[in-house]
User: Fold this.
Amino acid sequence: MKRIIVLLSMILLLSACNSNKQSTVSPMKEHRGHAKVKGGVYLEKEHTQPKTNAPLAMDKEKFIKKMVSQHGFNRQQLHDVLEQTNKLDWVINLMDKQAPKAGTSTVPNGAWIRYKNKFITASNIAKGVDFWNQYQSELQRAYKQYGVPPEIIVGIIGVETGWGRVMGKTKIIDALSTLAFYYPRRSEYFSNELEDFLIMARDEGVDPFDLTGSFAGAMGYGQFMPSAFRRFAVDFNSDGHVDLWDPVDAIGSVANYFKSHGWQRDKKVAVMADGQASQLENGFHTKYSIETLSKAGLKPQSSLDNYREVSLLRLDMGDRYQFWYGLPNFYVITRYNHSSHYAMAVWQLGQAVKNAR
Ligand SMILES: [Ca+2]
Assistant:
């Protein structure tokens, strides 16, 4: 997934405290049907939306041509479907606000503490325990099959959606068509996502206008993007459908995502260090030998699972920095969202829920 998702998750989780639990009935199940035209998507009813005259970042006709020639979509129906989408200017504004910014603080100011406190709270831990207890057998089955432990799956679904409480209310087709056709900076990425989304809706027999998610098109319990759906989502409850709004399919899909990105069964994630090494570059993408870190002044607080090469992680605790040895499984968590804070929050939330059970 992308950095945008975690920022969204933060906003959503903050608002989650004030909102009631959403219906857990999957929109996939509610609206599953059959397409009326060959190569078409299923449409529950005629969707009529105002047309827009704004300039295009990507040629709609070119997109339609590709969907017809490569995936056998019905040209006229797809044209009509895209005509009925809404251009969401607020989505473009939000995306602009989240464009990468340069420059970070050089003195500790508590950035990690502020981030962590959005997710690792007593109320969140209690909700995580409930989720774990409810889906204990499925979480165990996922661990057995994919090697990914319950605390990681529980941590991901907790940080992403508060265990299904906040899965987003934006029409995915509006979000994705807005970003594909009216947002040049990410147009290529989002037109590919729109492509995968339409294929998903057609394959699963759901009306694409019925599916809601984040403003960037992330869906369901684990906030999968459509491309992740096509590559990694699985039918973990064996009902014949792959449904990101079904908690059991989401559990299997998150586990499969991790396994596919190189998760190593029963290996550690990260180990805290004694000492300081502020002179070294840090981040999940860095690579150091244990000897280099030792010479810099760091010592692991427990075994490093025989790894000889690690990343150097630095958490801003407000009054000081805390250093960690990042192991390969930590890097795998960042494949879900490219952020050390994100990965650390997922892991620590999962651990906290595990300890509270
Ligand atoms: Ca299923």
